[in-house]
Amino acid sequence: MALNSNSLQMFQSIKRDTRDFINIDPLQTAGLLTDAAKEALIEWGDGYSVCDYCSGALDLVKKPPIQEFVHKALPEFLGTDEARVMNGARESKFAVMHSLASDAAADAAAAAGGKNNYVIMDAWAHYSSKVAAERAGLDVVLTQKPEREIMPEDFLEAIENGIEQYGKKPLLTLLTYPDGSYGNLADVKKIAAISHEFEIPVLLNGAYAVGRMPINAKEFGVDYIVGSGHKSMSACGPVGVLGVVGEERAEQLFRKSVHNKVKEVELLGCTSRGAPIMTLMASFPDVVERTQPENWAKEVETARHFIQRLEETGKFKLFGQNPHNHDLMFFEAPGFFNISERAKRGRYFLYDELKDKKIHGIKPGLTKNFKMSTYGLGRDKVDFIADSFIDILKKYDEI
Ligand SMILES: *Cc1c(COP(=O)(O)O)cnc(C)c1O
Fold first, then answer.
1. Ligand 1 center to residue 227 CA distance, Å?
2. Is the pLDDT of residue 108 over 70?
3. Distance from C-alpha of 287 to C-alpha of 381, rounded to nearest angstrom
4. What would the pLDDT profile of 190-211 be if each residue is shown by its tens digit?
5. Are 172 and 56 contacting, i.e. CB atoms less than 8 angstroms apart?
6. Confidence at residue 11, expressed as pLDDT on a 0 to 100 scale
């Protein structure tokens, strides 16, 4: 295209038509900015503006108070000894895997065994966990596909299979908590304990947990924890958090460059250096509040109430743990599917109907199975959504 002001106008003043909708997209419900974060976004939007008073290490910047956040507030929140702000959950996972993979001892073991190093993951692991392993040069061994939920025994079996297949133990086990499809919370403590029996460190992928619900790496018994700022911590992103338990592990993970004594290699020197980290910090007081056990209990109660309202119709079936323990939920909806077979717009009818009701977040084209989230909506809005679903079924004579 010709780069003149006429043709380039399309990139300016772009509006988002779903901005004032009720959002039920699991990716987005806990990523909505707080008012404080919106202010921070404007205040710190200019490139590198957080670096005014930096003396070489982002995490040690005192003004704005990044040091206080990264070295005091964040580790306390995560229940870890050390923490860093990263560019996302995936970058955090990659940093951990890469640091383990480049460990000299692991390399020597690989040379002796002739087989690659590997990571064990739950069968529902997110693609970004697998890609992180791939980029770090590691194979992936998954637990067997469960019928309903991932059990600790699945990890035991996967570890034993891995050791048999590779002739050595994995560098890491990774648990997705909750998984991103069904919102199931596996027994993290047991899984961590099983892993530790084999002296394998454990990484908890808390992309849907950190910032939504109470978590504590030490209480869970995991060695690493990662979270996603733009998914679950009301930050604009891309931004994520990484916590590590144990000073030795922290030292290995955050080792300094031979070329520059203050720069951490796995962080490529500096990570989130702009508005994303400032929105993460600005939302943090609210995030701390909303993850208090009593507030999370209300979220779960709202989610269960919504599930019950849908199940009462006989037209929706929840997959995974039931009673459910998370705001992320996955439904089978035969009623919606039936409609899609005869509606004029086919399987896009549901998207259209919900758009009319200003509800956003079920992927266009999905009817038979879909996932959604009730996070932060409260009773009135989830009742409105349930009523809307029922209205749509009635409109097309499904109930
Ligand atoms: C969204 C998601 C991620 C990716 O988070 P980023 O911060 O965007 O890298 C990783 N794992 C799970 C389970 C997710 O749902």
1. 8
2. no
3. 21
4. 999 999 999 999 999 999 999 9
5. no
6. 94
Give the pLDDT confidence of 258-286 residue by residue, as tens digits.
999 999 999 999 999 999 999 999 999 99
Q: Which residues contact 93 (CB under 8 A, 6 or more apart)?
A: 128, 129, 132, 174, 203, 205, 226
Residue 209: Cβ-neighbour burial (10 angstroms; 0-12, 13-18, 19+): buried
Report how far residue 339's alpha carbon sits from residue 165's, in angstroms, rounded to the nearest whole number.
48
Check if 93 has its Cβ closer than 6 Å to any atom of ligand 1.
no
94 CA distance to ligand 1 centroid (A)?
Answer: 12
Answer positive or negative: Cα dihedral of 360, 361, 366, 372: negative
| List of residues 6+ apart from 90 with CB closer than 8 A | 128, 129, 131, 132, 240
Q: Rounded to whole angstroms, what are the CA distances from 1 to 6, 12, 70?
A: 11, 16, 44
Contact 121, 316 (CB under 8 A): no
CA distances from 379 to 109, 114, 136, 306, 357 (A): 55, 57, 44, 8, 17
The answer to whether the pTM exceeds 0.85 is: yes
Cβ count near 287 (within 10 Å) = 24
Choose the residue to mutate in 29, 91, 122, 126 for probing ligand 1, maximizing ligand atoms within 8 Å of C-beta: 126
Span 377-393, average pLDDT: 98
Q: How many CB atoms lie within 10 A of CB 306?
A: 25
Q: What's the confidence (pLDDT) of residue 105?
A: 57
Residue 271: partners with Cβ closer than 8 Å, 6 or more residues away: 58, 84, 85, 86, 87, 91, 277
Could you list the beta-strand ranges (E) of 80-212: 82-86, 118-121, 139-142, 172-176, 202-205
